[in-house]
Amino acid sequence: AQTVTQSQPEMSVQEAETVTLSCTYDTSESDYYLFWYKQPPSRQMILVIRQEAYKQQNATENRFSVNFQKAAKSFSLKISDSQLGDAAMYFCAYRRRKPIQGAQKLVFGQGTRLTINP
Amino acid sequence: DTGVSQNPRHKITKRGQNVTFRCDPISEHNRLYWYRQTLGQGPEFLTYFQNEAQLEKSRLLSDRFSAERPKGSFSTLEIQRTEQGDSAMYLCASSLWGNAGANVLTFGAGSRLTVL
Description:
The complex is a heterodimer.
Chain A: E1 3-5, E2 10-14, E3 19-21, E4 24-26, E5 32-39, E6 46-52, E7 60-61, E8 64-69, E9 74-79, E10 88-96, E11 107-108, E12 112-117
Parallel strand pairs in A: 2-12
Antiparallel strand pairs in A: 1-4, 3-9, 5-6, 5-10, 7-8, 8-9, 10-11, 10-12
Chain B: E1 5-7, E2 10-13, E3 19-24, E4 31-37, E5 44-50, E6 53-57, E7 65-68, E8 75-79, E9 88-95, E10 106-107, E11 111-115
Parallel strand pairs in B: 2-11
Antiparallel strand pairs in B: 1-3, 3-8, 4-5, 4-9, 5-6, 7-8, 9-10, 9-11
């Protein structure tokens, strides 16, 4: 079974600084997706960034970028120029790409609570 | 479309009572998922529908849980004879599934259940 581990229950960063959230996963599959989701307090979970395992290039979305190390099964999220609105729980998630007909369910890590200090 | 809507947002009930949660997905989405999230943990998969068909259920979904999506639109999750261990956030998500694309899920804000 696939597992996702986030070893940092809490992180804090000064506004405008850069922070990196860690995620490792375990799978025997070679074709999969990795995701970072953001869950603000009492609000819905929002997709931050997505990485396809077959792509060597690291995904970027504005201030958010990932460091995908497939051999090490590591998938960290870097947030540059941190803003107060970035404060939230961040979840790393894994999903098999195949079988396409299957549930394609997400397997989540335990989450990292990110605090932004003004 | 305003996204995935869940109601009620918070339900407090006494042990042994039945509760029902409703999820209205994004209208053009053909897949609907239910996840459960307990305090300090990531969400765990419960079940999913493709249109009106319930195609997979997790072992977490005991016999006291039932989910429906009668017309392939909204879905309900009913918990009978609630137990304190059922206290959690129940998340609904929907997606447009097809042979291409990453089947990205859009989540609702969740329904929080507190069983006293």
